[in-house]
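USER:
I would value a second opinion on how I read folds in token form. Give me a protein, with the fold worked out from its sequence. Write it directly below this note and I will take it from there.

ASSISTANT:
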Amino acid sequence: MAAGAGTPPASALAEWAATQVPLPAALAVLCACAALPPLAAAAAAQLRPLKCRRCLGASSTVCDACRGRGKVGGLFTGQPLAACAACAGAGVCGCAACGATGLANSWLWKPTKADGAWGARGE
């Protein structure tokens, strides 16, 4: 038996090697496939409407000036009792963190004109 009779010719090996995906590219594709489901889930979680953490989605917070009473002054302060100027006597102010929308990602969501519900921007 001749030496090298069981090995294919060099040109056939070269053709086969040219058709194969390089190892670094194959590894990159495998890593991307493994990473895509968690990345897609994280992106989906960020793209849905998220409640504001400061106001918990209520779009208003307790007034800091009157602490929710709607009045300032009184017996213990020595000032006459008067309506709070910061909240106009309501006891609550619009949330500054979310722009009084109740949504942490209000840049992406807005009230729709049809029924007042929330919808994606551009609708």
About this structure: The two ends are 78 Å apart (CA to CA). Residues 23-47 form the longest helix (25 residues).
